[in-house]
Amino acid sequence: MAVADGRLDVAAGLCAARDASQEGIDGHLPPMHPDAYGARSARWRGRHRSRCPSTS
């Protein structure tokens, strides 16, 4: 169970980090997108929805 819990914690952390990076911006980045934190990410906003539940 420790390994499974660890993976869940990592996934939750990634979701939280993605939500934090989107603070003040309407829309979510696609999960695990290679340009998620790059300059080209803007074109993905609104077109793809994150599978992570929003914390807001």
Q: Can you give a write-up of this model?
A:
This protein has one domain (2-44). It is built from 1 helix and no strands. It has one helix at residues 2-21. It is mainly alpha-helical. The mean pLDDT is 54. The protein is elongated.
Topology readout:
Elements: H1 2-21
Helix percent reads: 25-40%
The first-to-last residue Cα distance is 29 Å
How much of the sequence lies in strands comes to under 5%
Individual helix count: 1
Radius of gyration, taken over Cα atoms and rounded to an integer in Å: 12 Å
H/E topology pattern:
H
Structural class computed from helices and strand pairing: mainly alpha
Largest sheet: none
Based on Cα principal axes, name the global outline: elongated
Number of spatially distinct domains: 1
**How many beta-strand runs?**
0
Mean model confidence by pLDDT: 54
Which residues form runs of ≥5 with pLDDT under 50?
Answer: none
Can you give me a brief rundown of this structure?
With 56 residues, the chain is mostly helical. The chain has one domain.
Primary descriptors:
0% strand; mainly alpha; 56 residues
